[in-house]
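Dig into this one:

. . .
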Amino acid sequence: MKSNLTAQTWETSERSAAQRFHLVTNWEFDATIDAVWARLTDPVTFPDWWPGFERAEVDGDGGIGTVSRYRVRGDFGLRFDLETTVVDIQQPRSIHLASTGDLVGTGVWWLHARGSSTKVTYIWDVEPANPVLRRLSQIPFLRRRMERSHDRVMEAGGENLAQLLAEDARS
């Protein structure tokens, strides 16, 4: 099974360019929506296959109220500790998250079946809680580096997820 990964994109919202990041990632996999859903709803395994994720702990059954705690490493050796809480879930179509910790805001996973493939869109709308990071994010060239760092983490995750989904299909 060959998996296709489309390029992800990022956008910066005009209304909140000073601090908020509005980051959009698009992936497409040659895998069923159920297979993709199973991987994305098992965050404790993210550090096993998603470069940048150093730690993941989950409290809950995956439904509304489930809390996941992560340590994610980006460029410059920066580490972000964050906690996401599932606030809405529509299996296997969407997961809405609230984020606290070093990045405060929301995340939404959208999954769409397209024949035998699945299109995934992740919208990450956050701002740094750390005052130093908040100030750094206001410097245009550093902000662009932060956005590119996010893109690299997401691209690596998407590529590895494509490989895992292909392996899952062969088993």
Notes: Strands lie at 9-11, 21-29, 53-59, 67-73, 79-90, 94-101, 103-114, 117-128. The first strand starts at residue 9 and ends at 11. The chain has a mean pLDDT of 90. The domain at 9-170 is CATH 3.30.530.20 (Alpha-D-Glucose-1,6-Bisphosphate; Chain A, domain 4).
